[in-house]
Amino acid sequence: MTPLTPQTVDHILFLGSHADDIEIGCGGTVLKLLEEHPSARVTWVVLCAAGERRAEAQASAENFLAGVSGEIIIKDFRDRYLPYQGEKVKDFLHELAQKFASDAQPDLIFTHRREDMHQDHRLTAELTWNAFRNHLIFEYEIPKYEGDLGQPNVFVPIAKAVCQRKVD
Questions:
Q1: Residues 6+ apart with CB under 8 A from 98
Q2: Do residues 113 and 121 lie in contact, with contact meaning Cβ atoms separated by under 8 Å?
Q3: d(CA 75, CA 45)
Q4: With contact defined as beta carbons under 8 Å apart, do 142 and 107 qualify?
Q5: Which residues are CB-neighbours of 93 under 8 A, at least 6 positions away?
Q6: Helix, strand or coil for residue 16?
Q7: What's the CA gap between 126 and 101, in Å, rounded?
Q8: Using CA atoms, how far apart are residues 108 and 162, in angstroms rounded to an integer?
Q9: What is the pLDDT of residues 133-157, one digit of tens each?
Q10: CA-CA distances (angstroms) from residue 157 to 23, 30, 70, 111?
Q11: DSSP code of 77?
C-alpha cells in the first residue's frame, strides 16, 4: 500500500451500524476531508437501515456526499441484533474487502470505536479490523446516554462553517 500523504487520499470508506452513526460520529471530519480532497471517491456503508430509516440514511448520505464520486451501500441487518447476525455481517464486510481488492483500495477507513458499549457499534468495529487488516483505520465515537466516551488520540479541527453544515 502506498504511504498516505495529504495528496494521496483517493478513496475513503465510512462504516456505520445505523442510519445516523457516520454523521454523528465523524460528520464534521467527512465534510472537512471532502473539502480538502474533492476528487476522493467515497464508499458510505450503513449496516442497519430498513423502512423509514433506510430513506433517512440514503438522503443523509446523499446530502453529505453531494458532488462527490462514490457509492452508498445501505444494508438491512436487524437493528440492535448485529452480534446475533455476526456471520452474515462478517461475510458482507469480507465481500466488500474482496471487491476493493480488485478495485481501488480505501486509503482511509472510518468505523466505530471498538470499546463502544452499543453491541452493534462494537461488532461493526471488530469486524472492520478483521476484514481490513492492512488499512489505515480511524475509530469514531458517538456520545450516548451511557457516556462511554474513550480517550481519543486524534481531534480534527473543524471550521465553524463546516460545523454548521454538519448540523444542517
A1: none
A2: yes
A3: 8
A4: no
A5: 127, 128, 130, 131, 132
A6: strand
A7: 20
A8: 20
A9: 989 999 999 877 766 677 777 778 8
A10: 16, 12, 25, 19
A11: P
Model's pTM, two decimal places?
0.89
Q: Which grid cell is 76?
A: 438491512
SS3 (DSSP) at 114: coil
Contact present, 125 and 111 (Cβ < 8 Å): yes
Residues 47-97 pLDDT 10s: 999 999 999 999 999 999 999 999 999 999 999 999 999 999 999 999 999
Question: Residues 80, 119: contact at Cβ < 8 Å?
Answer: yes
Task: Name the nearest CA neighbour of 37 among 10, 70, 64.
Answer: 10
Cβ–Cβ under 8 Å, residues 113 and 78: no
What letter does residue 85 receive in the DSSP assignment? G
